[in-house]
Amino acid sequence: MSSIFNQPFGLTWRKALLSAPRLVPDAALYLINPDGPHPIVIKIPSRGTHLIPLYVFIPGASKLDTSTSIEPTRHPVLLDFHGGGFIFGSCQEQAPWCAKIARELNAVSISVDYRLGPAAKFPAANEDSEDVLNAVLDPTKPGYQELRYLINEYLLRTSKRRIELDVTKFAASGFSSGGNLALNLGLNVRSSRVEEGDLPCLFPPSYARDIPLLLFFPSLDCRQLPSERPRPPIMEQQKASFSISLELESTLMPTYLPRDQAGHPRASPGLAKIRDGGLHDRVKMLLILPEMDTLAEQSHIWVSKVAEEGRASDLTVEEVKGVVHGWTQFPDSWLTEEHQKLKLDMFNKARDFIAQAWK
C-alpha cells in the first residue's frame, strides 16, 4: 500500500486539512454524544494483512454497571459507514446516530473505519465493508471470532456482562460515500468481464428477515467528480457556494478511485442491475435526500431505475427541504433550531424503518 507521505506535498496538505476531524480525541464524543453509549474501539483482521478499526456502541454498557450476571443477552446489529468521498471523514461524526440506535433499538452499532485514499485505492473501502459484514455473519471468515471476543472481553472486564450478536436482525446505514458502501452490501454484481468475476451478495438467498439499508444522501454514481455535478436550482437561486470543498474533493477522489474505474458498478452502485436478483430480495431501502445537494440528481435517476426494474415498493424516499448535503452530521450547535428538528425527524424515521424490519 502506498503511503500518504509519498504523495505530492500539495496533495498531502489538502488531505491533512480535510482529515482534521480525525485528530479530535475520542473523549470529545462525550460532548457531542452526551446520552451515550460511548464506543469502544477495537480492531479485527481483514482478508489482507491490515486490521480494520471499529467503533462499537453497546447498549447498556457502562463502567458504572455493577451487575454480576454473565448470562449473555442477544442484540441486533447495525453496520454503519461514514461519508467523506472515500478520502476523508471519520467514525466519530457517526456517534449521535449509532448511539441512538444502540439506545433505542437495543442494538450493537458498529461504525467501520474503512481505508481511505490516497493511501488506499479502490476497492479498499468495499473490501473492508465486506470483511466486517463477514465478521458479523460468517463463522468461517477472518474477524468473526475476534469481533465477539474483543467485545465480550471488554464487557467482562468492565461490567461483568456478555452479549451475543443476533445476526437474524441486521441493518446497514451509510452517509454520502458510506451510503455507496451500504447499498453495495445488498447487491449481486455480475461482471461483464470474465476475468473480473462476479461479486455476489454476502447475505444468503434464504436470509429470513428483511434487510433495511439506510441511505443518507448517498453517492451512487461516481463517474462525475464533485465539481462536475449539477447543482439543484435552489442552490443557484440562493447563490450557495461550496466551490472550494468541491474542488478539493475533485482533486483527491481520483487518488482513491481512478477515472477509468469510476463506472464499475461496485464504485457506482446506482448503475448496478436491480432486477433478476441484482438486489437481494429481502432488502428494504430508505433514501434521505436533502434539497440542497449536488448528489440529488443522481439519486432521482436511481429512484426511477428502481421503479422501472420492479422494486419501487422496497424503496421509501424522504426529501428534506432547505438543508444541505451532510447536515445530519453537523453538531447541533452549527444548526438552526429548524434544521436540528429536521435532523431528529430523519433519525427517528430511520430508526422506525429499522424497527419495522426487525419486528
From TrEMBL:
Alphabetized SUPFAM superfamilies for the sequence: alpha/beta-Hydrolases
Keywords noted in UniProt: Hydrolase
Residue ranges occupied by any Alpha/beta hydrolase fold-3 domain in the UniProt entry: 79-328
GO molecular function: hydrolase activity
Superkingdom to which the source organism belongs: Eukaryota
Keyword Hydrolase included in the entry's annotation: yes
Name the record gives this protein: Alpha/beta hydrolase fold-domain-containing protein
Organism: Calycina marina
